[in-house]
């Protein structure tokens, strides 16, 4: 009985394979003179509909979005730290709005700017190093909050043809993070010494621009590959003309 259900389920998936993009997602037509305006509304709407993911496309839940890990080594300059983050949770992505959209589907290129009112990055961390003249080390939970985070996304795609259908595979996804303000909190710094930890957290926040600037590139790199994976979960499975209908 169980096998029958599984077979039936996979047949159904095959049969609707081309229409896997949920029905309630807004489609924007390729030839729409207002394609960019359409996408500006459709994409954040789709993000909100993906709060719990799309199991049929193996799109993970976006709220929170889980990231397995990230290692950061900054070598020179005022911030020299090695950091390991594990069990990362990103909160707030689905509250993003898009402020501009530039789609160039002929060249498989999408560029968009988004603003996220509050993005919390929560993770287990281990770190060791030096910030300005101060040594820093700890192992605990990190909470990095980016307030009014502007993200510039640049998606560079290429056509991939499978069974006569064209898919828009994203081969490169670049992001730039421009937060208005960053709030950092690391629990259990200095083996749990409360006075040292409180002072260091205060110091980090007084210098949050400097600290964030040193770490920004690593965050951008890690998160762009997460965004690329999520996008390709959809773009590699749903033909381009089912995402952006031709007529
Ligand atoms: C992380 O920090 C922000 C800003 O201080 C706070 O609003 C949020 O509740 C914190 N999250 C956790 C899980 O501690």
Automatic annotation (TrEMBL):
Residues 1-17 form the signal peptide. Pfam families: JHBP. It comes from Papilio xuthus. The lineage of its organism: Eukaryota, Metazoa, Ecdysozoa, Arthropoda, Hexapoda. This is Protein takeout-like. It comes from the Eukaryota. InterPro entries: Haemolymph_juvenile_hormone-bd, To_sf. One of its GO terms (cellular component) is extracellular space. SMART domains: JHBP. Keywords: Biological rhythms, Signal. GO terms for biological process: circadian rhythm. Belongs to the TO family.
